[in-house]
């Protein structure tokens, strides 16, 4: 195990992926018109427990498509967690609207519902909670705020396929939800995304805008009434996605077992912390994020990362807060204010290897290294 390289994440393809992709290639249906696109959309909607799903070419454009399907545009504001992947903010910028940042909860690392209302203005149109690392947000509180202020909820579930809040899966917790199927996700198509909703109106908007605003009746007079986008998913990517969703529960269980094993093996290590689990939330552990308190652990986050790298264990840094992104400053976002939890996570957090294909002995090896380094 000493000389084995353990990547931070790699895809697991143990179903009908090759069979379906081969069929797509052999039949010549490799564009967005093949049968696997519709099948994947139907099966994923069923998996999430929603009525409608619209596939896209990646997760970032899925967020953008969700936003424009709700009519979000220039002059509007959308509230997001300060601690998130930059795609959450960029998708809002694409519409001409303004991302507004809220710090996250110190235990869950998700948007702190108690801080949302102070950021709401007359221009606020939506809240975009992000299920960080596969951990669903506190949706009851968020929905209560949204209802009080007549706001949409757009869930960024890029990292939380199959996660549940009080028995309901992500995808069925908001007005509209966007997923990513990037190669490191619990379910993958290599590149890809999905917009899901129970609203027929939002669904039709998403179909319309994702396909260059061609009429939904299928006519092709090449007169386009609105500015549209080419966000279509190919039949090849959808073929992979269909095979993945057929084994969604299996892949989910793989990540959950890995996450629980990490937590069990590291629970007694001083200065090492994970997200705090809550009994009514099913975390699917997209990534096993680790927070290091250097005063207790005895080493810094960067020290530990360097040590693990030398032991051939791959890791990744946590996100840098949105309030420190030069691109968003240039765009005109309000960068003022303090975001102490976000800053602390960004300074002291990183991901451990989290592939669905991880073997127990690999997790044991990583945890043993973390324990040993604390003693040196």
Keywords:
376 residues; alpha/beta; Aspartate Aminotransferase, domain 2; Aspartate Aminotransferase, domain 1; 2 domains; four-stranded antiparallel β-sheet; 13 helices; PyrdxlP-dep_Trfase_major; transferase; pyridoxal phosphate; DegT/StrS_aminotransferase; PyrdxlP-dep_Trfase_small
CATH architecture of the largest domain: 3-Layer(aba) Sandwich
Number of helices: 13
CATH domain fold name of the largest domain = Aspartate Aminotransferase, domain 2
Whole-angstrom Rg = 21 Å
CATH superfamily of the largest domain: Type I PLP-dependent aspartate aminotransferase-like (Major domain)
Description of the molecule:
The two termini are 21 Å apart. Helix 2 (35-48) runs parallel beside helix 7 (235-246), helix 3 crosses helix 6 (200-210) and helix 8 (248-266) runs parallel beside helix 13 (360-375). Strand 2, helix 4 (86-95) and strand 3 form a beta-alpha-beta unit. The mean pLDDT is 97. It is globular and about 70 Å long. 38% of the residues lie in helices and 14% in strands. The chain has helices at 17-27, 35-48, 59-69, 86-95, 139-149, 200-210, 235-246, 248-266, 294-297, 301-310, 326-331, 340-348, 360-375, and strands at 52-56, 77-81, 98-102, 124-127, 152-156, 164-165, 168-169, 176-180, 193-197, 272-273, 281-282, 288-292, 316-317, 349-352. The chain has 2 domains: 17-247, Type I PLP-dependent aspartate aminotransferase-like (Major domain) (Aspartate Aminotransferase, domain 2); 249-375, Aspartate Aminotransferase, domain 1 (Alpha-Beta Complex). It contains 13 helices and 14 strands. A 7-stranded mixed beta sheet has the order 1-9-8-5-4-2-3, with helices on both faces. With 376 residues, it is of the alpha/beta class.
């Amino acid at each position: 195990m000493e000389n084995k390289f353990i990547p931070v994440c790699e895809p697991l393809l143990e179903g009908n992926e090759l069979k379906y992709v081969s069929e797509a290639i052999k039949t010549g249906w490799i564009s967005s018109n093949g049968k696997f696109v519709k099948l994947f959309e139907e099966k994923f909607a069923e998996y999430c427990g929603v009525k409608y799903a619209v596939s896209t070419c990646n997760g970032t454009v899925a967020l953008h498509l969700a936003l424009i399907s709700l009519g979000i545009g220039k002059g509007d504001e959308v509230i997001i967690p300060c601690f998130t992947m930059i795609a959450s903010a960029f998708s809002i910028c694409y519409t001409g609207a303004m991302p507004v940042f809220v710090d996250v909860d110190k235990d869950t690392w998700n948007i702190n519902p108690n801080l949302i209302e102070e950021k709401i203005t007359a221009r606020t149109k939506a809240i975009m909670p992000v299920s960080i690392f596969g951990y669903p947000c506190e949706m009851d509180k968020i929905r209560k705020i949204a209802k009080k202020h007549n706001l949409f909820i757009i869930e960024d579930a890029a990292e939380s396929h199959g996660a549940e809040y009080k028995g309901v899966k992500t995808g069925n917790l908001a007005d509209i939800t966007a997923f990513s199927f990037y190669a490191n996700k619990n379910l993958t198509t290599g590149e890809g995304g999905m917009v899901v909703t129970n609203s027929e109106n939002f669904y039709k908007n998403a179909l319309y805008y994702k396909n260059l605003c061609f009429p939904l009746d299928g006519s092709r007079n090449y007169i386009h009434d609105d500015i549209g986008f080419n966000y279509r998913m190919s039949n090849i990517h959808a073929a992979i996605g269909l095979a993945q969703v057929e084994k969604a529960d299996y892949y989910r269980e793989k990540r959950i077992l890995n996450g629980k094993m990490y937590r069990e093996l590291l629970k007694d290590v001083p200065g090492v912390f994970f997200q705090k689990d809550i009994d009514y939330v099913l975390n699917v552990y997209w990534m096993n994020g680790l927070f290091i308190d250097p005063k207790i652990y005895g080493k810094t986050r960067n020290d530990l990362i360097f040590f693990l790298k030398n032991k051939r264990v791959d890791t990744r840094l946590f996100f840098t807060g949105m309030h420190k992104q030069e691109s968003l400053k240039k765009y005109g976002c309000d960068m003022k204010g303090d975001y102490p939890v976000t800053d602390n996570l960004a300074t002291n957090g990183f991901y451990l290897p989290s592939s669905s294909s991880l073997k127990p002995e690999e997790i044991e090896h990583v945890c043993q290294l973390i324990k040993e380094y604390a003693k040196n």
